Amino acid sequence: MIQINENFPKLSDSYLFSEIAKKVNRYKEANPERNIISLGIGDVTQPLAPAVVAAMHKAVEEMGEASTMRGYAPESGYLFLKEAIIRNDFHQRGISLDVDEIFVSDGAKSDTGNIGDVLDAGNTVAITDPVYPVYLDTNAMAGRAGDCHNGRWSRIEYLPAVPENGFIPRIPDRKVDMIYLCYPNNPTGTTLTREQLKHWVDYALENKSLILFDAAYEAFITQEDIPHSIYEIEGATQVAIEFRSFSKTAGFTGVRCGYTVVPKALKAFDKTGKEYALNALWNRRQSTKFNGTAYIVQRAAEAVYSPEGKKQIRQTIDYYMENARIIKEGLNALGYTSYGGVNAPYIWVQTPAGISSWEFFDKLLNEYQIVCTPGVGFGASGEGFVRMTAFGTRDNTIEAIQRMGR
Ligand code: PLP
């Protein structure tokens, strides 16, 4: 008899965004004349940079010629892209990495989810709360989260990030093996300074833990003292894997490209204490289960680092960050308390006293036709907040804030 992975039924079946979509569709059916503005799902609205589009066209032409067409790509990515990544994202920040420490992929969601393949199901896991749900759900699928009672997983160490601690999660007082950190943070839009991040690297060095550092929103950092990469912290190559994505940086949500850095200095252990390089294990995993990112897509990603590409991408990021400023200042003027929105495209808005995340979601939808994301969907510590994103169009962003002021 075929048996299922019994961790799957433990997951709640309603994923946050499908619940939101259901509510929005119900509202639309009942109010077809109303114009709904979405500040909800973190998807981009601005087109790809012209330099990226040109690179894709050129790559398509190459694929149409026998002499230049490419078949299977190297599983870990073409050298041209890996070199551009290293030069621009790391060397320019004083970080030294080799090309074989970069693994190009179809995005950070797959990699943050798949990384668990090379790690034991018995590892203990710490995640910040609220959190990007993929870390939690993929660990639950692997059986690392234990059982779920009232929305809390028995084997997960939750690290609340709330106004009371300045959104700085506490260092656990017990030993944990895997720690997920996402900075700039989705959903709170907050960041850690170098000093704060160093505490985590020191903890991981001391406890032989692994930090899974998601830097998908690195490009949105505006303040000088905020680290763009965990490898800016001394010792981090011994304890951290870093995930990057072109999705928000360059509007690749529908193109699909990201990369993961697994330094060769990073070691993990078997039950006897024997040491293994995670780089070799991840390489083995990827070459077995992943067949490379499309050539056209990798050429597109390479163009993100061209002089014109950089300029064009900066303009789009600035456009989104201006939206963030409009939302944040608009909400502040209306008397709301909000966080984030300075180094990240997310604004974490405190709901008025006594109103839950979902109640505030309903109020914004029904009274102003604005869609946000209820904070509680990202974890228990997200209750009392909603997330708004800066990825809308300028007109919609302005209109949304004006509606809330009416
Ligand atoms: N990591 C975080 C924190 C995200 O918010 C997202 C997307 O919303 C991703 C990863 C997924 O990125 P990708 O589109 O590269 O899969």
In words, what does this structure look like?
This protein has helices spanning 16-30, 50-63, 79-90, 108-114, 133-141, 194-207, 246-249, 278-289, 295-303, 307-333, 357-368, 394-405, and strands at 37-38, 102-105, 125-129, 148-149, 152-153, 156-160, 178-182, 210-214, 240-245, 258-261, 267-269, 275-277, 338-340, 346-350, 370-371, 373-374, 385-389. The chain has 406 residues and is an alpha/beta fold. It has two domains: 13-47 and 308-405, Aspartate Aminotransferase, domain 1 (Alpha-Beta Complex), CATH 3.90.1150; 54-305, Type I PLP-dependent aspartate aminotransferase-like (Major domain) (Aspartate Aminotransferase, domain 2). The mean pLDDT is 96. Bound molecules: pyridoxal-5'-phosphate. Residues 42, 107-109, 112, 132, 182, 186, 214, 216, 245, 247, 253, 258 line the site of pyridoxal-5'-phosphate.
Question: Summarize this, please?
Answer:
With about 400 residues, the protein is an alpha/beta fold. About 35% of the residues lie in helices and about 15% in strands.
Topology overview:
Layout: H1 16-30, E1 37-38, H2 50-63, H3 79-90, E2 102-105, H4 108-114, E3 125-129, H5 133-141, E4 148-149, E5 152-153, E6 156-160, E7 178-182, H6 194-207, E8 210-214, E9 240-245, H7 246-249, E10 258-261, E11 267-269, E12 275-277, H8 278-289, H9 295-303, H10 307-333, E13 338-340, E14 346-350, H11 357-368, E15 370-371, E16 373-374, E17 385-389, H12 394-405
Parallel strand pairs: 1-15, 3-6, 3-7, 7-8, 8-9
Antiparallel strand pairs: 2-10, 4-5, 9-10, 11-12, 13-14, 14-17, 16-17
The structure holds pyridoxal-5'-phosphate.
